[in-house]
Amino acid sequence: MIKLEHVDKQFADHHALNDINVEFPEHETTVILGPSGAGKSTLLRSLNLLERPQSGIYQINDEKVDFSQELSTSQILRVRRKTGMVFQSWNLFPHLTILQNITEGPIHVLKQSKQEAEANATKLLQQVGLDGTQHRYPSQLSGGQQQRISICRALAMDPEYILFDEPTSALDPELEAQVLHVLLTLAQSKQSMIVVTHNMEFARRVATKIIFVEDGKVEFDGTPSEFFDHPTDRIHAFLNGMQF
Amino acid sequence: MWNTIVNSTPEIFWAGIKFTIPLTLISFAIGFVIAVVTALVRTSTPKGNPVVAGLWGLLKLFLSFYVWLFRSTPLLVQLFIVFFGLPNIGIQFDAFSAGIITFSLNTGAYCSETVRGAISSIPDSQWEAAYSIGMTYRQVLFRIVFPQALRVALPPLSNSFIGLVKDTSLASSITILEMFMVSQQIAAKNYEPLLMYSIVAVVYAVFCTVLSVAQHYLERYMSRYVQVTGE
Ligand SMILES: Nc1ncnc2c1ncn2[C@@H]1O[C@H](COP(=O)(O)OP(=O)(O)OP(=O)(O)O)[C@@H](O)[C@H]1O
Ligand SMILES: [Mg+2]
Protein backbone atom coordinates (compact mmCIF):
# COMPACT_ATOMS: atom_id res chain seq x y z
CA MET A 1 0.00 0.00 0.00
CA ILE A 2 1.21 3.48 -0.87
CA LYS A 3 -0.13 6.27 1.31
CA LEU A 4 0.51 9.99 1.00
CA GLU A 5 -0.35 12.39 3.82
CA HIS A 6 -0.26 16.16 3.54
CA VAL A 7 2.28 16.09 0.74
CA ASP A 8 3.29 19.51 -0.50
CA LYS A 9 5.57 20.51 -3.35
CA GLN A 10 6.38 24.09 -4.15
CA PHE A 11 8.41 25.05 -7.23
CA ALA A 12 9.98 28.50 -7.32
CA ASP A 13 6.85 30.08 -8.78
CA HIS A 14 4.27 27.31 -8.65
CA HIS A 15 2.50 25.31 -5.96
CA ALA A 16 2.56 21.96 -7.80
CA LEU A 17 1.23 19.69 -5.05
CA ASN A 18 -1.11 21.15 -2.45
CA ASP A 19 -1.82 19.00 0.60
CA ILE A 20 -2.11 15.65 -1.19
CA ASN A 21 -3.76 12.86 0.82
CA VAL A 22 -4.26 9.71 -1.16
CA GLU A 23 -3.80 5.95 -1.15
CA PHE A 24 -2.72 3.62 -3.92
CA PRO A 25 -3.86 0.07 -3.14
CA GLU A 26 -1.67 -2.92 -3.85
CA HIS A 27 -2.40 -5.27 -6.77
CA GLU A 28 -4.64 -2.67 -8.34
CA THR A 29 -4.37 -0.16 -11.16
CA THR A 30 -4.85 3.42 -10.09
CA VAL A 31 -5.22 5.90 -12.92
CA ILE A 32 -4.37 9.56 -12.37
CA LEU A 33 -6.29 11.98 -14.58
CA GLY A 34 -6.33 15.74 -14.81
CA PRO A 35 -5.70 18.68 -17.11
CA SER A 36 -2.24 19.64 -18.31
CA GLY A 37 -0.13 21.29 -15.64
CA ALA A 38 -2.30 19.85 -12.85
CA GLY A 39 0.66 18.21 -11.11
CA LYS A 40 0.18 14.59 -12.23
CA SER A 41 3.78 14.05 -13.24
CA THR A 42 5.04 15.79 -10.13
CA LEU A 43 2.90 13.49 -8.00
CA LEU A 44 4.06 10.36 -9.79
CA ARG A 45 7.73 11.37 -9.81
CA SER A 46 7.55 12.08 -6.08
CA LEU A 47 6.78 8.40 -5.51
CA ASN A 48 10.07 7.51 -7.21
CA LEU A 49 11.85 10.39 -5.44
CA LEU A 50 12.85 11.95 -8.75
CA GLU A 51 10.93 14.92 -7.37
CA ARG A 52 11.30 15.90 -3.72
CA PRO A 53 8.27 17.45 -2.01
CA GLN A 54 9.06 19.84 0.86
CA SER A 55 6.72 18.27 3.38
CA GLY A 56 4.36 15.38 4.01
CA ILE A 57 4.58 11.69 4.77
CA TYR A 58 5.00 9.01 2.12
CA GLN A 59 4.48 5.42 3.19
CA ILE A 60 5.25 2.59 0.77
CA ASN A 61 4.65 -0.80 2.35
CA ASP A 62 7.13 -1.00 5.25
CA GLU A 63 9.08 2.10 4.24
CA LYS A 64 8.17 5.52 5.63
CA VAL A 65 9.53 8.75 4.16
CA ASP A 66 9.17 12.10 5.89
CA PHE A 67 9.66 14.70 3.17
CA SER A 68 10.42 17.44 5.70
CA GLN A 69 13.58 15.58 6.73
CA GLU A 70 16.82 15.15 4.81
CA LEU A 71 16.61 11.73 3.08
CA SER A 72 19.58 9.40 3.33
CA THR A 73 20.98 7.88 0.14
CA SER A 74 20.19 4.37 1.36
CA GLN A 75 16.58 5.33 2.01
CA ILE A 76 16.26 6.85 -1.45
CA LEU A 77 17.68 3.67 -2.98
CA ARG A 78 15.29 1.51 -0.94
CA VAL A 79 12.27 3.47 -2.16
CA ARG A 80 13.49 3.31 -5.75
CA ARG A 81 13.87 -0.45 -5.40
CA LYS A 82 10.17 -0.65 -4.65
CA THR A 83 9.08 1.55 -7.54
CA GLY A 84 9.71 1.09 -11.24
CA MET A 85 9.18 3.97 -13.63
CA VAL A 86 8.09 4.08 -17.25
CA PHE A 87 8.56 7.43 -18.93
CA GLN A 88 6.56 9.16 -21.64
CA SER A 89 9.57 9.13 -23.98
CA TRP A 90 10.80 5.72 -22.66
CA ASN A 91 14.39 6.94 -22.10
CA LEU A 92 16.11 3.68 -22.96
CA PHE A 93 19.91 3.72 -22.71
CA PRO A 94 20.94 4.27 -26.35
CA HIS A 95 24.44 2.85 -25.97
CA LEU A 96 23.24 -0.51 -24.63
CA THR A 97 21.57 -3.32 -26.52
CA ILE A 98 17.99 -4.24 -25.71
CA LEU A 99 19.19 -7.13 -23.57
CA GLN A 100 21.68 -4.92 -21.73
CA ASN A 101 19.02 -2.27 -21.18
CA ILE A 102 16.90 -4.82 -19.35
CA THR A 103 19.71 -6.58 -17.45
CA GLU A 104 21.61 -3.43 -16.42
CA GLY A 105 19.61 -2.95 -13.22
CA PRO A 106 19.32 -6.64 -12.23
CA ILE A 107 23.06 -7.21 -12.67
CA HIS A 108 24.44 -4.00 -11.20
CA VAL A 109 21.79 -3.04 -8.67
CA LEU A 110 20.29 -6.39 -7.64
CA LYS A 111 23.63 -8.21 -8.17
CA GLN A 112 22.00 -11.05 -10.07
CA SER A 113 24.23 -13.29 -12.14
CA LYS A 114 24.41 -12.50 -15.83
CA GLN A 115 22.78 -15.80 -16.80
CA GLU A 116 19.90 -15.32 -14.39
CA ALA A 117 19.32 -11.73 -15.51
CA GLU A 118 19.46 -12.64 -19.18
CA ALA A 119 17.13 -15.60 -18.82
CA ASN A 120 14.65 -13.40 -17.02
CA ALA A 121 15.02 -10.63 -19.62
CA THR A 122 14.30 -13.09 -22.41
CA LYS A 123 11.18 -14.24 -20.61
CA LEU A 124 10.00 -10.65 -20.29
CA LEU A 125 10.71 -9.96 -23.95
CA GLN A 126 8.59 -12.97 -24.88
CA GLN A 127 5.77 -11.62 -22.74
CA VAL A 128 5.71 -8.31 -24.62
CA GLY A 129 6.15 -10.03 -28.00
CA LEU A 130 9.66 -8.76 -28.67
CA ASP A 131 11.76 -11.91 -28.36
CA GLY A 132 14.47 -11.72 -30.98
CA THR A 133 15.34 -8.05 -30.48
CA GLN A 134 17.90 -8.85 -27.74
CA HIS A 135 20.98 -7.77 -29.67
CA ARG A 136 19.61 -4.71 -31.39
CA TYR A 137 20.00 -1.14 -30.20
CA PRO A 138 17.07 1.05 -29.14
CA SER A 139 17.51 3.35 -32.15
CA GLN A 140 16.71 0.38 -34.39
CA LEU A 141 13.24 -0.11 -32.90
CA SER A 142 9.97 1.78 -33.24
CA GLY A 143 8.62 3.95 -30.44
CA GLY A 144 6.02 1.39 -29.48
CA GLN A 145 8.63 -1.35 -29.32
CA GLN A 146 10.97 0.85 -27.28
CA GLN A 147 8.21 1.61 -24.83
CA ARG A 148 7.51 -2.10 -24.38
CA ILE A 149 11.24 -2.63 -23.78
CA SER A 150 11.21 0.10 -21.15
CA ILE A 151 8.34 -1.71 -19.43
CA CYS A 152 10.54 -4.83 -19.41
CA ARG A 153 13.37 -2.78 -17.92
CA ALA A 154 11.09 -1.71 -15.08
CA LEU A 155 9.62 -5.20 -14.60
CA ALA A 156 13.07 -6.82 -14.49
CA MET A 157 13.70 -5.03 -11.19
CA ASP A 158 10.64 -6.77 -9.77
CA PRO A 159 9.33 -3.57 -8.16
CA GLU A 160 6.37 -3.47 -5.82
CA TYR A 161 4.75 -0.69 -7.85
CA ILE A 162 5.21 0.38 -11.44
CA LEU A 163 4.63 4.05 -12.23
CA PHE A 164 3.68 5.05 -15.77
CA ASP A 165 3.82 8.68 -16.83
CA GLU A 166 1.73 9.01 -19.99
CA PRO A 167 3.31 5.87 -21.47
CA THR A 168 1.50 6.19 -24.79
CA SER A 169 1.26 9.95 -25.35
CA ALA A 170 4.17 9.98 -27.78
CA LEU A 171 2.86 7.08 -29.87
CA ASP A 172 0.68 6.64 -32.94
CA PRO A 173 -2.67 4.94 -32.19
CA GLU A 174 -1.57 1.58 -33.58
CA LEU A 175 1.60 1.53 -31.47
CA GLU A 176 -0.37 2.86 -28.50
CA ALA A 177 -2.64 -0.19 -28.69
CA GLN A 178 0.34 -2.54 -28.43
CA VAL A 179 1.57 -0.80 -25.30
CA LEU A 180 -1.89 -0.60 -23.72
CA HIS A 181 -2.29 -4.30 -24.35
CA VAL A 182 0.84 -4.94 -22.27
CA LEU A 183 -0.51 -2.71 -19.51
CA LEU A 184 -3.81 -4.53 -19.56
CA THR A 185 -2.06 -7.89 -19.19
CA LEU A 186 -0.06 -6.52 -16.27
CA ALA A 187 -3.20 -5.22 -14.62
CA GLN A 188 -4.85 -8.62 -14.99
CA SER A 189 -1.84 -10.27 -13.37
CA LYS A 190 -2.44 -8.05 -10.31
CA GLN A 191 0.72 -6.02 -10.70
CA SER A 192 0.38 -2.85 -8.59
CA MET A 193 0.34 0.05 -11.03
CA ILE A 194 -0.16 3.79 -11.04
CA VAL A 195 -0.80 5.23 -14.47
CA VAL A 196 -1.00 8.83 -15.59
CA THR A 197 -2.80 8.88 -18.91
CA HIS A 198 -5.05 10.91 -21.16
CA ASN A 199 -6.59 7.75 -22.59
CA MET A 200 -10.12 7.68 -21.17
CA GLU A 201 -10.94 4.29 -22.62
CA PHE A 202 -7.99 2.79 -20.77
CA ALA A 203 -9.04 4.54 -17.55
CA ARG A 204 -12.59 3.29 -17.87
CA ARG A 205 -11.71 -0.29 -18.76
CA VAL A 206 -8.60 -1.00 -16.71
CA ALA A 207 -8.56 1.27 -13.68
CA THR A 208 -9.77 -0.01 -10.34
CA LYS A 209 -9.42 3.45 -8.90
CA ILE A 210 -9.37 6.96 -10.36
CA ILE A 211 -7.70 10.03 -8.96
CA PHE A 212 -8.50 13.36 -10.54
CA VAL A 213 -5.93 16.08 -9.94
CA GLU A 214 -6.32 19.77 -10.67
CA ASP A 215 -4.18 22.73 -9.60
CA GLY A 216 -2.10 20.50 -7.38
CA LYS A 217 -5.11 19.19 -5.45
CA VAL A 218 -6.89 15.86 -5.49
CA GLU A 219 -10.40 16.76 -6.64
CA PHE A 220 -11.72 13.23 -6.95
CA ASP A 221 -10.75 9.90 -5.45
CA GLY A 222 -13.03 6.96 -6.21
CA THR A 223 -14.09 4.22 -8.60
CA PRO A 224 -14.19 4.52 -12.40
CA SER A 225 -17.96 4.08 -12.45
CA GLU A 226 -18.46 6.97 -10.03
CA PHE A 227 -16.07 9.05 -12.07
CA PHE A 228 -17.49 8.35 -15.50
CA ASP A 229 -21.15 7.69 -14.73
CA HIS A 230 -21.79 10.23 -12.01
CA PRO A 231 -19.34 13.02 -12.71
CA THR A 232 -19.38 16.30 -10.83
CA ASP A 233 -19.75 19.42 -12.94
CA ARG A 234 -16.02 19.95 -13.04
CA ILE A 235 -15.30 16.35 -14.09
CA HIS A 236 -18.07 16.58 -16.64
CA ALA A 237 -16.40 19.64 -18.14
CA PHE A 238 -13.04 17.86 -18.13
CA LEU A 239 -14.45 14.78 -19.86
CA ASN A 240 -16.22 16.93 -22.44
CA GLY A 241 -12.98 18.80 -23.04
CA MET A 242 -11.34 15.51 -23.97
CA GLN A 243 -13.68 15.15 -26.93
CA PHE A 244 -14.08 17.39 -29.94
CA MET B 1 71.71 13.10 -49.39
CA TRP B 2 70.27 9.63 -49.35
CA ASN B 3 72.92 8.62 -46.87
CA THR B 4 72.05 11.53 -44.58
CA ILE B 5 68.41 10.51 -44.59
CA VAL B 6 69.18 6.86 -43.92
CA ASN B 7 71.56 7.75 -41.11
CA SER B 8 69.59 10.37 -39.23
CA THR B 9 65.97 9.19 -39.61
CA PRO B 10 66.35 6.25 -37.20
CA GLU B 11 67.97 8.56 -34.65
CA ILE B 12 65.08 11.03 -34.87
CA PHE B 13 62.55 8.25 -34.80
CA TRP B 14 64.21 6.75 -31.75
CA ALA B 15 63.99 10.12 -29.97
CA GLY B 16 60.30 10.01 -30.78
CA ILE B 17 59.90 6.58 -29.21
CA LYS B 18 61.96 7.54 -26.16
CA PHE B 19 60.60 11.01 -25.43
CA THR B 20 57.87 12.34 -27.72
CA ILE B 21 55.54 9.37 -27.34
CA PRO B 22 55.97 8.89 -23.56
CA LEU B 23 55.61 12.65 -22.98
CA THR B 24 52.41 12.65 -25.01
CA LEU B 25 50.88 9.48 -23.58
CA ILE B 26 51.66 10.18 -19.92
CA SER B 27 50.66 13.85 -20.14
CA PHE B 28 47.44 13.07 -21.93
CA ALA B 29 46.49 10.33 -19.48
CA ILE B 30 47.08 12.59 -16.47
CA GLY B 31 45.51 15.55 -18.27
CA PHE B 32 42.40 13.52 -19.05
CA VAL B 33 41.95 12.52 -15.41
CA ILE B 34 42.42 16.17 -14.37
CA ALA B 35 39.88 17.18 -17.02
CA VAL B 36 37.23 14.71 -15.85
CA VAL B 37 37.65 15.60 -12.17
CA THR B 38 37.62 19.32 -12.94
CA ALA B 39 34.53 18.98 -15.12
CA LEU B 40 32.69 16.92 -12.50
CA VAL B 41 33.47 19.31 -9.66
CA ARG B 42 32.51 22.32 -11.74
CA THR B 43 29.17 20.81 -12.82
CA SER B 44 27.98 19.55 -9.43
CA THR B 45 26.69 21.20 -6.29
CA PRO B 46 26.51 19.22 -3.06
CA LYS B 47 23.31 19.76 -1.08
CA GLY B 48 22.94 19.99 2.65
CA ASN B 49 25.86 20.81 4.93
CA PRO B 50 26.72 24.53 4.49
CA VAL B 51 30.40 24.02 5.42
CA VAL B 52 30.82 21.38 2.69
CA ALA B 53 28.94 23.59 0.24
CA GLY B 54 31.22 26.51 1.09
CA LEU B 55 34.41 24.52 0.64
CA TRP B 56 33.04 23.09 -2.59
CA GLY B 57 32.40 26.62 -3.82
CA LEU B 58 36.01 27.56 -3.05
CA LEU B 59 37.25 24.48 -4.89
CA LYS B 60 35.13 25.43 -7.91
CA LEU B 61 36.55 28.95 -7.84
CA PHE B 62 40.07 27.56 -7.70
CA LEU B 63 39.41 25.22 -10.65
CA SER B 64 37.91 28.02 -12.73
CA PHE B 65 41.08 30.02 -12.02
CA TYR B 66 43.24 27.07 -13.04
CA VAL B 67 41.40 26.56 -16.33
CA TRP B 68 41.53 30.28 -17.06
CA LEU B 69 45.23 30.50 -16.25
CA PHE B 70 46.34 27.68 -18.51
CA ARG B 71 44.10 28.66 -21.38
CA SER B 72 45.17 32.27 -21.42
CA THR B 73 48.94 31.92 -21.30
CA PRO B 74 51.27 30.40 -23.94
CA LEU B 75 52.39 26.84 -23.40
CA LEU B 76 56.02 27.78 -24.02
CA VAL B 77 55.86 30.40 -21.25
CA GLN B 78 54.28 27.81 -18.92
CA LEU B 79 57.16 25.40 -19.64
CA PHE B 80 59.73 28.11 -18.90
CA ILE B 81 58.06 29.07 -15.64
CA VAL B 82 57.91 25.48 -14.40
CA PHE B 83 61.41 24.47 -15.46
CA PHE B 84 63.49 27.68 -15.27
CA GLY B 85 61.32 29.84 -13.02
CA LEU B 86 60.19 27.68 -10.10
CA PRO B 87 63.75 26.79 -8.96
CA ASN B 88 63.98 30.46 -7.87
CA ILE B 89 61.50 29.68 -5.11
CA GLY B 90 63.08 26.36 -4.34
CA ILE B 91 60.87 24.09 -6.45
CA GLN B 92 63.05 22.07 -8.79
CA PHE B 93 62.09 19.43 -11.36
CA ASP B 94 64.17 17.51 -13.83
CA ALA B 95 63.33 18.42 -17.41
CA PHE B 96 61.15 15.40 -18.12
CA SER B 97 59.01 15.88 -15.00
CA ALA B 98 58.67 19.60 -15.71
CA GLY B 99 57.46 18.66 -19.19
CA ILE B 100 54.95 16.11 -17.90
CA ILE B 101 53.59 18.53 -15.28
CA THR B 102 53.16 21.40 -17.70
CA PHE B 103 51.69 19.36 -20.55
CA SER B 104 49.30 17.56 -18.19
CA LEU B 105 48.01 20.74 -16.61
CA ASN B 106 47.68 22.41 -19.99
CA THR B 107 45.83 19.46 -21.54
CA GLY B 108 43.68 19.12 -18.42
CA ALA B 109 42.56 22.73 -18.67
CA TYR B 110 41.57 22.45 -22.33
CA CYS B 111 39.97 19.03 -22.10
CA SER B 112 37.97 19.89 -18.98
CA GLU B 113 35.85 22.22 -21.11
CA THR B 114 35.38 19.44 -23.67
CA VAL B 115 34.40 16.92 -21.02
CA ARG B 116 32.11 19.41 -19.29
CA GLY B 117 30.29 20.07 -22.54
CA ALA B 118 30.01 16.37 -23.34
CA ILE B 119 28.61 15.46 -19.91
CA SER B 120 26.02 18.22 -20.00
CA SER B 121 25.00 17.14 -23.51
CA ILE B 122 23.58 13.91 -22.04
CA PRO B 123 19.93 14.70 -21.29
CA ASP B 124 18.60 14.69 -17.72
CA SER B 125 16.18 11.96 -18.79
CA GLN B 126 19.11 9.52 -18.97
CA TRP B 127 20.05 10.32 -15.38
CA GLU B 128 16.42 9.90 -14.33
CA ALA B 129 15.98 6.59 -16.11
CA ALA B 130 19.15 5.26 -14.46
CA TYR B 131 18.15 6.55 -11.04
CA SER B 132 14.71 5.01 -11.47
CA ILE B 133 16.23 1.51 -11.66
CA GLY B 134 18.01 2.19 -8.38
CA MET B 135 21.51 3.10 -9.56
CA THR B 136 23.81 5.19 -7.39
CA TYR B 137 25.37 8.45 -8.58
CA ARG B 138 28.61 6.65 -9.40
CA GLN B 139 26.89 3.89 -11.30
CA VAL B 140 24.91 6.38 -13.37
CA LEU B 141 28.08 8.32 -14.08
CA PHE B 142 30.30 5.40 -15.05
CA ARG B 143 27.77 3.10 -16.69
CA ILE B 144 25.31 5.44 -18.37
CA VAL B 145 26.65 8.98 -18.72
CA PHE B 146 30.39 8.54 -19.40
CA PRO B 147 30.05 6.00 -22.22
CA GLN B 148 27.64 8.31 -24.04
CA ALA B 149 29.60 11.47 -23.23
CA LEU B 150 32.82 9.90 -24.47
CA ARG B 151 31.33 9.49 -27.92
CA VAL B 152 30.46 13.18 -27.98
CA ALA B 153 33.88 14.17 -26.63
CA LEU B 154 35.96 11.91 -28.85
CA PRO B 155 36.51 14.25 -31.84
CA PRO B 156 37.58 17.27 -29.74
CA LEU B 157 39.64 15.03 -27.43
CA SER B 158 41.42 13.56 -30.45
CA ASN B 159 42.17 17.08 -31.60
CA SER B 160 43.75 17.86 -28.26
CA PHE B 161 45.68 14.61 -28.34
CA ILE B 162 47.09 15.20 -31.81
CA GLY B 163 47.82 18.81 -30.84
CA LEU B 164 49.76 17.55 -27.85
CA VAL B 165 51.94 15.30 -30.03
CA LYS B 166 53.09 18.36 -31.92
CA ASP B 167 53.28 20.61 -28.86
CA THR B 168 55.81 18.29 -27.24
CA SER B 169 58.32 19.78 -29.71
CA LEU B 170 58.33 22.76 -27.32
CA ALA B 171 59.95 20.49 -24.75
CA SER B 172 63.18 20.93 -26.74
CA SER B 173 63.39 24.39 -25.21
CA ILE B 174 63.66 22.92 -21.70
CA THR B 175 66.48 20.57 -22.67
CA ILE B 176 64.44 17.42 -23.32
CA LEU B 177 66.01 15.32 -26.06
CA GLU B 178 62.82 14.72 -28.00
CA MET B 179 62.62 14.47 -31.80
CA PHE B 180 62.83 18.15 -32.62
CA MET B 181 65.80 18.69 -30.31
CA VAL B 182 67.61 15.74 -31.87
CA SER B 183 66.98 17.01 -35.40
CA GLN B 184 68.30 20.43 -34.35
CA GLN B 185 71.46 18.83 -33.01
CA ILE B 186 72.03 16.83 -36.18
CA ALA B 187 71.39 19.89 -38.33
CA ALA B 188 73.99 21.83 -36.34
CA LYS B 189 76.56 19.16 -37.18
CA ASN B 190 75.82 18.39 -40.83
CA TYR B 191 74.59 21.83 -41.96
CA GLU B 192 71.46 20.32 -43.53
CA PRO B 193 68.67 22.16 -41.65
CA LEU B 194 66.16 21.93 -44.51
CA LEU B 195 66.60 18.20 -44.75
CA MET B 196 66.65 17.58 -41.00
CA TYR B 197 63.56 19.67 -40.25
CA SER B 198 61.75 18.09 -43.19
CA ILE B 199 62.53 14.64 -41.84
CA VAL B 200 61.27 15.50 -38.38
CA ALA B 201 58.15 17.05 -39.93
CA VAL B 202 57.48 13.80 -41.76
CA VAL B 203 57.93 11.75 -38.58
CA TYR B 204 55.43 14.01 -36.73
CA ALA B 205 53.05 13.60 -39.65
CA VAL B 206 53.39 9.82 -39.52
CA PHE B 207 52.61 9.74 -35.78
CA CYS B 208 49.62 12.04 -36.21
CA THR B 209 48.28 10.12 -39.18
CA VAL B 210 48.38 6.87 -37.25
CA LEU B 211 46.40 8.61 -34.50
CA SER B 212 43.84 9.98 -36.96
CA VAL B 213 43.26 6.54 -38.38
CA ALA B 214 42.86 5.15 -34.87
CA GLN B 215 40.42 7.96 -34.10
CA HIS B 216 38.40 7.08 -37.16
CA TYR B 217 37.94 3.47 -36.05
CA LEU B 218 37.30 4.43 -32.46
CA GLU B 219 34.61 6.87 -33.56
CA ARG B 220 33.03 4.24 -35.69
CA TYR B 221 33.01 1.79 -32.81
CA MET B 222 31.58 4.30 -30.37
CA SER B 223 28.83 5.30 -32.77
CA ARG B 224 27.74 1.73 -33.41
CA TYR B 225 24.44 2.34 -31.63
CA VAL B 226 23.60 5.52 -33.48
CA GLN B 227 21.25 5.19 -36.40
CA VAL B 228 22.61 7.32 -39.23
CA THR B 229 19.90 6.69 -41.79
CA GLY B 230 16.21 6.24 -41.03
CA GLU B 231 14.77 2.77 -40.81
N1 LIG C 1 11.08 21.79 -12.45
C1 LIG C 1 10.05 22.64 -12.39
N2 LIG C 1 10.23 23.94 -12.05
C2 LIG C 1 9.20 24.79 -11.97
N3 LIG C 1 7.92 24.45 -12.21
C3 LIG C 1 7.66 23.18 -12.56
C4 LIG C 1 8.71 22.20 -12.67
N4 LIG C 1 8.14 21.02 -13.02
C5 LIG C 1 6.83 21.26 -13.14
N5 LIG C 1 6.53 22.54 -12.86
C6 LIG C 1 5.18 23.14 -12.85
O1 LIG C 1 4.37 22.41 -11.99
C7 LIG C 1 3.07 22.25 -12.55
C8 LIG C 1 2.72 20.79 -12.58
O2 LIG C 1 3.55 20.14 -13.53
P1 LIG C 1 3.35 18.62 -13.93
O3 LIG C 1 4.42 18.31 -14.90
O4 LIG C 1 3.29 17.81 -12.69
O5 LIG C 1 1.95 18.64 -14.64
P2 LIG C 1 1.16 17.46 -15.37
O6 LIG C 1 -0.14 17.32 -14.68
O7 LIG C 1 2.01 16.27 -15.46
O8 LIG C 1 0.93 18.07 -16.81
P3 LIG C 1 0.95 17.37 -18.26
O9 LIG C 1 -0.37 16.68 -18.43
O10 LIG C 1 1.10 18.51 -19.19
O11 LIG C 1 2.11 16.44 -18.27
C9 LIG C 1 3.10 22.91 -13.92
O12 LIG C 1 2.49 24.17 -13.81
C10 LIG C 1 4.55 23.06 -14.23
O13 LIG C 1 4.77 24.23 -14.96
MG1 LIG D 1 3.03 15.26 -17.05
From TrEMBL, chain A:
The protein, known as: Cell division transporter, ATP-binding protein FtsE
GO biological process, one term: cell division
Organism: Paucilactobacillus wasatchensis
Gene: ftsE
Keywords from the UniProt entry: ATP-binding, Cell cycle, Cell division, Cell membrane, Membrane, Nucleotide-binding, Transport
A single GO cellular-component term on record: plasma membrane
Residue span(s) of domain ABC transporter: 2-240
Broad class of where this protein is predominantly found: membrane
Gene3D superfamilies the record matches: P-loop containing nucleotide triphosphate hydrolases
Membrane topology according to the record: Peripheral membrane protein
InterPro entries: AAA+_ATPase, ABC_ATPase_HisP-typ, ABC_transporter-like_ATP-bd, ABC_transporter-like_CS, MetN_ABC_transporter-like, P-loop_NTPase
Automatic annotation (TrEMBL), chain B:
Transmembrane stretches, start-end: 12-39, 51-69, 75-96, 194-214
Gene Ontology CC: ATP-binding cassette (ABC) transporter complex
InterPro entries: AA_ABC_transptr_permease_3TM, ArtM/GltK/GlnP/TcyL/YhdX-like, MetI-like, MetI-like_sf
Predominant localisation class: membrane
Subcellular location: Cell membrane
Annotated GO MF terms: L-cystine transmembrane transporter activity
Membrane topology according to the record: Multi-pass membrane protein
Domain ABC transmembrane type-1 stretches: 17-212
Swiss-Prot/TrEMBL keywords: Amino-acid transport, Cell membrane, Membrane, Transmembrane, Transmembrane helix, Transport
Keyword RNA-binding recorded: no
This protein's record includes keyword Membrane: yes
Similarity comment text for this entry: Belongs to the binding-protein-dependent transport system permease family.
Name this protein carries in UniProt: Amino acid ABC transporter, permease protein
